[in-house]
Every structure is written in structure tokens, then in C-alpha cells.
Amino acid sequence: MTRRMDPLTAEVLDLIGTVVARYHQEYDAAAAVHHLTGAQARVLALLATDPLPMRKIAERLKCEPSNVTGIVDRLEAQGLAERRNNPADRRVKLAAATDRGRATAEQLRDSLEFAREPLAALSEGERGVLRDLLARMVR
Amino acid sequence: MTRRMDPLTAEVLDLIGTVVARYHQEYDAAAAVHHLTGAQARVLALLATDPLPMRKIAERLKCEPSNVTGIVDRLEAQGLAERRNNPADRRVKLAAATDRGRATAEQLRDSLEFAREPLAALSEGERGVLRDLLARMVR
DNA sequence: TATTGTTATACTCTATAACTATA
DNA sequence: TATAGTTATAGAGTATAACAATA
């Protein structure tokens, strides 16, 4: 059922594994500065753009809705998010970032060292090439 | 203390975020086929190459040594790994993959859909460019 | 009846601290 | 004393199943 892959693809895959590991380290460290876990920071980043029903957050995170309850609870406990009722459908609760939550999300995004150190090693032209290749991979 | 980043860098960072998310989905799904969690699969992949002291595994995973105990316990319970004594230093325990463990690790690696579908969208020349850019990012 | 969010439960991963057996 | 591994503990994320409120 499995298939061998060519050496170049294996090499790229290995590098992506390294990038993935590095990305998580940096992301979690940046989140920890604000006393947030990675999952909490990810949800806060989602809410910073727009309020979202709990169910939609679960879809974005690709996890079960029951898990979102706890994550939003912890954001709420830190005053970074709040739950709002939806008059149009009273079953729905909208999670929304507070002003402090939005400010934290912005700081978090701007402080991602990952964006600077590793990417700074590339010229602007090379970053453009990288963008195009990644975009086609992810498409 | 934070600094704005240029739009191109932000775009690349976003793409990397997408790649990271996709990578984890695929990796965890591939691991689940073998009744393994992501962490267990990662340790098994390490052991497939060479036996390692518990302490070294923790360093590679960048986690505390106490966590490795449980992960290796679960691999051992499935007959995929075993602990061996080190005669040279009897404090050390070497975790080693069993034959079944090595076979599982190989299947796991070859079954990584991530390597095929997204990377297949690129030509061999493009994969080479991607490898070089990622290698320079990662150093 | 179906859907939204929550609660209850159990498992894994994580860090911290204390313990053991070696060195 | 110091080091390797374990145990104990607590917090967080995860899936599953059952539940209340609402549609």
C-alpha cells in the first residue's frame, strides 16, 4: 500500500518537518509571553478579525466543538474574549475578542520572530519565489 | 517592542502557517492508521534509525525527560519499542525499535500523503529550488 | 426532529518536583 | 555530588457521548 518516494522529495519533506518544528517553537514561545497556549493564541487570532460562533471556531481548528468551550473559557478568564448572544438564533453564542484581546493578537502577530530571522536570510526576490512555490503546494 | 513586517513576508508566513497545519493533519492521520499519536510516531521514527538513551529522545523532542517515559511505555505496550540496558553506564536505558517498530516506521514514512499530493504539484526543478530556499531558511 | 453549545469522562502530552539507582 | 530515568501531580488539548435550550 505504501510507495517509495524519490530522494529529492524526501529531502524537501525533511526540511518541511524542520520548518514545522521551528514554527511551533517560535509560535508557542510568542504565545507564552502573553500567558497563552498555542491553541489559545490561534483562537484569539481568529477572533481578532471577526466574532465567530463556537461551532465555526471548531471547524477552523478542525477539532470537536466541545474543546472550544474550554479554550474560550480560558481566554474569557483573561479578559481577552467574551461570549455574545446572537438574537437571530438564540442557540448560537458568538465568541468575540475584547479590545485587550485584539491588542494582544496584534502584538503576537508582529512579534513572531519566525518571520524575521529565518526569512531574513532570503532576498526579496527569493521570498517571492518561495511564496509562489508554497502557494502552489497548498492550493 | 514589536515591529511591522512587510506584506510579502507576511504572505509567506501565512503560507507557512497553512503548510504547518496541513502537515500536522496528514502526519497525525498517518499515525492514527497505526494506532499511534503524533508524539509516539515521532519517537518511533527516531528509534527506527538507532537506539537512543531516553535523555537524548527528550532533547530531540525538546521536551522534558519525564514525558519520554510515558511515550516509550506506550510504544513498548504495542510491541513497537523496547528498553535495553547500557552495560557501559547502568544508569542509562536505551530505547530501541523492535522489528515490528521499524516496519511500522517505514510504512508510516512512505505513507505520508503530504509528500505526494502537495509536492507533486511542483516539477523536479521547482522542488530543487524549494529545497534550497528552505535549507537556507532553516540553516 | 435537528442543531448549538455545554458538561462529563477518559486519554495523551506537557512541565515541575521529588525520588531511585547508579556514577 | 551529579546524572539518568522514573514517579507523582497538575494543567491543557483532544475525542466521545449525553444533555439542555432553541430551532
Number of helices of chain A: 7
CATH class of chain A: Mainly Alpha
Percent of residues in helices of chain A? 55-70%
Q: What class would the helix/strand composition of chain A place it in?
A: mainly alpha
The count of strands of chain A amounts to 3
Report strand % of chain A. Answer: 5-15%
Low-confidence parts of chain A, pLDDT < 50 over ≥5 residues?
A: none
Report on this model:
- The structure is a homodimer of 139-residue chains.
- Chain A has a three-stranded antiparallel sheet.
- The longest helix of chain A is centred in the N-terminal third of the chain and has 27 residues, at 7-33.
- Chain A has one domain (7-138): Arc Repressor Mutant, subunit A, CATH 1.10.10.10.
- By secondary structure, chain A is mainly α.
- The first copy, chain A, is globular, with a radius of gyration of 18 Å.
- The first copy, chain A, is built from seven helices and three strands; from the N terminus they run H-H-E-H-H-E-E-H-H-H.
- Chains A and B meet through helix 1, helix 5, helix 6 and helix 7 of A and helix 1, helix 5, helix 6 and helix 7 of B.
- The first copy, chain A, binds a DNA duplex (23 and 23 nucleotides) through helix 2 and helix 4.
